[in-house]
Amino acid sequence: MNYKIVKLKTHDKSQKNRSVLLIYTGGTIGMIHDDAGSLVPFNFVKVIESIPELSKLELNLTVISFPKPIDSSDINPNDWVSLGYIIYENYDQYDGFVILHGTDTMAYSASALSFMLEGLAKPVIFTGAQIPIGNLRSDARENLITAIEIASDQQNGIPIVKEVCIYFNFGLFRGNRAQKVRSSTFAAFESQNYRMLAESGIYIRYNETSLARPKGLTPLRLHQKFDNNVLILKIFPGLTERIFNSIMGIKNLRGVVMETFGSGNVTSDHWFTEALIAADKKGIIIFNVSQCSGGEVIHGQYETSKKLEEIGVVSGGNITTEAAITKLMLLLGRYDSHQNVKKNLTIPLNGEMD
């Protein structure tokens, strides 16, 4: 891609200020109204004109803009690879990174980046807005300014945050633990199974015990290969044998994130058990996650879920669906071995599950 790159002015050139790379992919945050009143993409390299408060921050700010803004509904693994590559190539030049992204798939992208950037020891903060930046009541200003502050925040010269996060509506969430739960309020995101990493008020208060603590100073490693021959299947009362078998019979299907009831339960019908056994024998990996917001799969808590474990279905514990599908795609891209993928699905790669 031919990215647009602009270095913005710092507050005080006489000081060696911290540096943040702002990556604009698209989304509601970058929309303004044209003369006809329609929402159109905003040239984000002119962000200072819309948010002059940014010029007061004592840091060096560089903006990289995707050549064509992407609606977050159109985001795909190729875009994740582009984001990962930008961060990897610029990792030593900046203290932190902020990614502006549409909210609908932000949790998927944040999860994917958290698995791609092995050894990350700097902040990568996703943010966006529910109302376009050009609107009077937009939440874009606060989200963007605070995300940049967090991305540049240090203690004794060391970044406070050392992981991929989502900042939204005064809360900082671990990227692979967050989910979009609302579309009509500013409080779009929640993290049901993991406490917030920070809360923004008069001060930014970090929950230090919840922040990632990378072991050692290992070099950053970028994983870029995804296998998206996968799908998400939500189990529901009335699912038929014919439909289920047709799904499992999809050509080249390699993995399924299966959203089950409660703590990982499914129907006890004989045909369902036999279908899962057949899928496992074909090399299709079944990753079991709970349909419940804040739920957790516990194989064996009930008789129906005990059978799943015996079959070879992998428990996702308290992982989110967004983290589960991106983790599955990345591991399928990394390993050829069926067993290696299964083994690594059960291991927390970057704080996505307990």
Rg over CA atoms = 21 Å
- List the domain count as a whole number: 2
CATH class of the largest domain: Alpha Beta
CATH topology of the largest domain: Rossmann fold
Uncertain runs:
none
Q: What is the mean predicted local confidence, pLDDT? A: 91
Strand % is 15-25%
Helical fraction equals 25-40%
Which class of secondary structure composition applies to the elements?
alpha/beta
Write the CATH homologous superfamily of the largest domain: L-asparaginase, N-terminal domain
Oligomer: single chain
Q: How do the strands line up in the largest sheet?
A: 1-5-2-6-8-11-12-15-16
The CATH architecture term of the largest domain is 3-Layer(aba) Sandwich
Straight-line N-to-C gap: 37 Å
